Amino acid sequence: MQRALFTEEEVRLASERRLKYHGTAKVSLDQIAFDPPLPRDLDPKNLKRIKEIFRKNRCRRFDIDNHVPAIISRRDLAAALQQAQVPARALMTNIAERLPTLRFSAGQLWGLHGRHRAQVASEVLPPLDRWWTVDLYLDGMIFMLFLYPVLIVSRSRRYWQQPQDLVNRRICQ
Q1: Helix axis angle, 115-124 relative to 44-57, nearest 10°?
Q2: Residues 6 or more apart in contact with residue 22 via CB below 8 angstroms
Q3: Under 8 Å CB-to-CB from 149, ≥6 apart: which residues?
Q4: pLDDT tens digits for 75-112?
Q5: Cβ atoms < 10 Å from Cβ of 42
Q6: What's residue 20's pLDDT?
Q7: Helix, strand, coil % (nearest 5) of the chain?
Q8: Residue 81 neighbours by CB distance under 10 Å
Q9: CB 143 within 8 A of CB 69
Q10: Between these two residues, 119 and 172, which has the higher pLDDT value?
Q11: DSSP line for 18-44
Q12: Domain parsing of the chain, residue ranges
């Protein structure tokens, strides 16, 4: 008997991810909130490794693998688009030079991954060049991002992750 290529859960999560994805923008590093919020909570070895990569190969902020996925409320995204005088369709461009720059207030944009990268970039980039490429997802969703199912509770900014043994069991299935 052949196993299905994708589980029902994978298909459901991929569908929801497509529905919640609203495009990509350039965002100032200081406008992306992370958990943990403080640099002292980060792995020093990883920071050093990334710093070396940035010095040798540059930051490569436009490479899709280096984008920071982040959640935002529909209202906050609409306000940022209006303030920048940019139509929502501009966020869907595949051309790096055409990515719009959006501005957010503190606590509006929450990065789900890439905290170490953002920290190093804020240390090595010149002050006027401290931005990153961010993939924008609406909050209030459940999807698997980078192997961990995360429940994003709209506006509460709390994350729930399944216990490690459940995650491992799902990955091995």
Answers
A1: 60
A2: 72, 77, 88, 91, 136, 137, 138
A3: 13, 142, 143, 161, 162, 167, 170
A4: 999 999 999 999 999 999 989 999 999 999 988 999 98
A5: 15
A6: 84
A7: 45, 20, 35
A8: 19
A9: no
A10: 119
A11: HHHEEEEEEEEGGG-B-SS-SGGGS-H
A12: 8-172
